[in-house]
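Hi team,

Filling in the usual template for the complex we talked about on Friday. All components are listed, including any nucleic acid strands or ligand strings, so the model treats them as one assembly.

SUBMITTER: L.P.
PURPOSE: interface mapping
COMPONENTS: two
RESIDUES: 346
SEQUENCES:
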Amino acid sequence: MPARPKLESTTATEVSLRLLRPYTIGADSPYLSEDQQRLCQMTLRERSAWMAEWLRWAQPASSRGRTPKPCCAPTMIRKP
Amino acid sequence: MENPYFELHREFRSAGAEVLLSSGQACVAFGVAAFSKDGDWVIRELPTSCDAVLAVLAAHQAVYRLGAPLDPQWLALGLTSHLEYLSGDGTRIRVDLCSRPPRVPDIEALWAAAVRAENLDIVDVESLLRLKRTRRLRDYPIIGALAEVAGLERGVARIALENLQDFHLLAEAVRRWPHDAAHTQREAVRLLAAGAPRRDVVIALALEQDAQVQADEERIRALQTAAGDFPRRFAALRGRWRREGTTLVQQHEQLKELAQCLLARS
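RESULT (copied from the run log):
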């Protein structure tokens, strides 16, 4: 497991602002899928574009009564 | 290409509304959710904010879904307004607004801690963690993910110890912050600090999650009971709106009339 950063005094606002910038998380995260791990590494603008493309993909699928699957995830955006 | 919910947020702000992106779209902004099909906002309990949002949505030819009118009187009861419209490319945009989100004890603190970047205003991570303690099981991996990236990875003990949802990472947090762990009331943390067997910790985590699910179910049951026959009457009203092509401004006035019963029952 990768070393974790040292404890620092910080606020919820500071941490939240930090998460709006690209960051990486270990591949062994029990919570984050591959898609989510890619999303973490994006800028806020890239995350916005990712979401826009997701909605575009999901809409025709849901209108046919199907639930969009993660395999329909956007492919335009690559890791930085 | 831009997230239509982020674009809509900027339209709300340009119109003069005080709003914060919340729930699923906040998780997308923080990078822990890959997708969310609707938009949730916390709105200031002010006529100016409500009017500004309604003006923007009216321009998009939005319609009300089942819920409260977007008006401070109903928002003050902890109720949510639900609206929707079809965007130019046919995407169904669903808009949910409330001023007193559940499980947030101090609304002013939520506004004070909100983050602003690229003309977006977003609830902070700790408030988001409280908001996500819903009846939906799929929200708990998101809580775990937020606790991992905001707590464990960023070195914030309280976020990690209070919110991690799995044995391994919570055990790591307790090893890393034994002093903080000794002072937390959370049962799973207390058991880990006392060296209890894994089975007991896992049971404590499951019971905690179930208690949170039940608390949210109870909250929603109480809202449904208080609503009485409002949903049935709303369905009839919406049918009339569809037949008559009623504008959002007219819908708003008629919904306020219909929803007087909710004020009377509060």
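MY TAKE: The first strand of chain B starts at residue 19 and ends at 22. Chain B touches chain A through 53 residues (CB under 8 Å).

Thanks, L.
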